[in-house]
Amino acid sequence: MKEQLRNIDDRCIESSLGWRLDILSLSAVRYAEAGRSIKLEVEDRPRVNGELEWLVYVPESWIWKSEDGEEPVAPEKVSEILSRIRLAFWKLDMPVKEIV
Fold first, then answer.
1. 51-62 tens-digit pLDDT
2. Contact 81, 37 (CB under 8 A)
3. Which of 4, 5, 33, 44 has a beta carbon 3.0–4.6 Å from 52's, enabling a disulfide?
4. 61 contacts: CB under 8 Å, gap ≥ 6
């Protein structure tokens, strides 16, 4: 099945594979899937031409939060989450400069 991304609004992307990215504010996003979520910090930086590009800051500890509590994110899952975040930002026309 080919993945399809759907803009819920100008602050949210949902994937046909079951994940979702919500822009919570100009400084935070939430990635969610399967009833679990993780919050990441972001920062906008203006380019020379005035357009914004984004920095995404990875957390020190990757912890899923859910109604059942917290659990660590599997190390092999981290790169998949980051790729999906980059894809969602692209779909929202918010270019990511760097993930740090």
1. 889 999 999 999
2. no
3. 44
4. 72
